[in-house]
Amino acid sequence: MAPMLVQEVEDDAPSSNTLELTPVEQTLTRLLLDVSHHIDEHPSTPQTESHVELPAELANEKIVLRYTGGWVRDKLLGVPSHDIDVAINKMTGFQFGLRMKQYLEIPGNLEKYGLESLAANDKQSLKAGTTDKSKTVGGLHKIEANPEKSKHLETTTMRILGLDIDLVNLRKETYTDDSRNPEMEFGTPEEDALRRDATVNAMFYNLNTKETEDFTRRGHKDMARKVICTPLEPYQTFKDDPLRVLRLIRFASRLGYTIEAEVLEAARNPDIKEALRRKISRERVGVELEKALTGPDPHEALRLVFDLDLYETIFSDPAVADVDHYSPDVDGWQIVIDALSDVLNNGGTIADNLARDKEEQYFAWQLAAMVPYRDAPNPVQTDPNRKPPPPVAVTVVKEGIKATNRVSDVIHASVRNEPEISGLVDKLYDRKRRPDKSFDGEDATARDVIGMAIRRWGATWRSQVVYAMLVEIANNQVQVEAIERKYTTFIEQVASLSLLDVISIKPLLDGKALAKAIGAPPGPWMKDALDRSNSTDPMASPSSVTEAGRKVTTAALPQKLSLQTEDETLTKPWKGTKGAFSLDILRWVVNRLDSKIIAEVWPLVIPPILTLIDDHQPQYKTIGASLLDCLLKSTPPPLLSRTGLGEVFEDALLPCLTFTPPLTPIDEAIPLLQATYRALLTLAYVRFPDPQPQSTTTILPPLPRTNFLDKILRSAFITPLAHSPSALPPPFLILIYTHLPLYLSALGLASVKHMQYILPLLTSTLTRPASPATPEVLANANATLQAVIRNGWPRIGGYKGEVIKAVVGCWVRSYGKEGMEGVREGLKGTVGLLVGVLEEGDKAEVLKTGQELVAVDGRVKGLFE
């Protein structure tokens, strides 16, 4: 098959079949061609050793050189590349390298290319050719083939003019019946191209003709389509070298390309995954993973690992038997890597302070990869005289991907310190969020407490905090934004106390000085003594001065009146017999507030309402949420904005959404959730009011309100329904489908993004036999379906099939059953609403579908009339 030149491809391909080389690349090309001409003219040099036999038909051909693979691809994309693979038609890479060395040893030849010397030993070779200014040529390094580890090809490397050169012969692979390892033979350019991992990596640049060549006839086309596919059948390509699965993941994430569906399917094959785990050296796996995680889109690389079910294949210790291997918890890992991607890409306090450079960002992705091992039990220590074995996650990165000691140390410290870090962050956030509340123990916001903690965590404390945040996200997947907000507060406090670089501050006293001062030998006692002496905070204010530098004018409350008392009836009088009337008074006050007087009593009513919401008993939480809803309806938006309590109210209400049945008794859960749904919706309007003056053409709510409502809609409605709608009790379904339309109406047209999730859930409720089928459940679900249509009508045409499926399924389900008359009337109304908002073409299609359904099943008659 003749090669296809670049110019023969589609209109959006480069118009020329030549490439523009840099000056350094031009020099290298000239050198390589001169060497090949020298060999052609002086072929009598004794052959060097090689296990690859030269076919007779190639013996008399002249040498032809080609740049191959990634360098050609990057050149076509306009991306600089310092790695060049050189393919030789009739010599092995080592043979050609030796002849090139002999050529450069001829007096005067080095100077032709601006060079001065050849590296004489390994020490010189390490520095030789590292930049384009280097005048020394690096030595040859032969990398032997290792078929047992799917390393089929012998290569020879060298460095020259800042370029890393790989010399290799054009090859083909042949298999025999009695061996799974191929025999390498000299091949044609076409045979060589077809054995490569991807079509976009299989194009050549012919140094002799100065033209690009595409022997697969797909390389340039796939580049134009931004698609990754294999030259041959994907399963066989991966079977020959399973590492190609990881290589294609890396290329897809680096180039922003999509992997072809057939290729993805082959990568999911259990045989390929097992071969990748057992056959490929873990060093090669680690190299590919590191390249992917340091590339432009590590999130996409890990997403593909997750999507292809390769997590345990890659992140495991192959030396551990399957029966003894801990199964990592990958449930929710997609949410973890999504959250990390958002944090790093969107910037902000966390990214700016915890992932400041490429190394810390790489650590963050490696730590994210280890989150599924967060609950792995610690290995048993069998020898008390030796150090305890490291956590499972550390063993996985050491043995599974052969990570560096630096990476292993970061992961070890992160796993070890995660409980302390998350605990300190929680305590600090609670104190910041509720300054009116008293807390036991040390002050987590204090400079000495935070500073000494960071010292204990060590130099990589920033990465460790990232890991603690990711672990918390994995354990609380519906609270991503709240968790990020909490860790942002922690970092802001660290920065405000000038502790970001505390690890570099020299201690006031070291061990030698302490031992000398008191005349005592060093010992275990010294650590505690040094911690105490070095924890003195020179910037702390005396007890008589406030943090703002003002004189303290109020004395501490007596113990009896302090919030620190253990008698709950003093801080929550409604729980005592003498104060039972207090809730009635609080209700009376809140119900009679208006916008004119609310600011005056604001400091008096907020603490008891928040205390009620924070109570562990659902009945008190319900009262608190109801009172807050009533209070917010009288609250002017400027007052809420000025006091900054909007976020506090949000953080207080969100945990109430977790009190769902069956974990919470139904008679307690329904009132609490109902009050919470109402309060959150009211909070959305007061906290994020419409702009003034409001445009008459505005059809979308303010963006902050939209983001807030999106979050509530997902956590309060979509998540419970998605878990198991058929297992939810009817009262809970009725509650959800009563309030969900209110949130959809509040979002308006912005609700369209949720259609793809809500409509299938509604279809399940309306049609599945296992779902509750009470008239009230079906009527409310249908009302929600109508709300979806009313608010998302511009996009409903794309989902008309799902709507028809839901309506017809419910119509047939309710056929002939008593008490369903109202439901069936509602379903007819849904069809009428759908037809009314559709474009003419879609409308006609729906009516035609209705006629066809009636012809197939007479029970459908009457629905589309």
TrEMBL record:
tRNA nucleotidyltransferase/poly(A) polymerase RNA and SrmB- binding domain mapped to chain residues: 257-318
Cross-referenced InterPro entries: NT_sf, PolA_pol_head_dom, PolyA_RNA-bd, Tti2
Domain Poly A polymerase head: 66-228
GO biological process: tRNA 3'-terminal CCA addition
Signal sequence range: none
GO CC annotations on file: mitochondrion; TTT Hsp90 cochaperone complex
Gene3D superfamilies given in the database record: Beta Polymerase, domain 2, cca-adding enzyme, domain 2
Ligase as UniProt keyword: no
Keyword check for Metal-binding: no
The family this protein is said to belong to: Belongs to the TTI2 family.
Name of this chain's protein: Poly A polymerase head domain-containing protein
Lineage: Eukaryota, Fungi, Dikarya, Ascomycota, Pezizomycotina
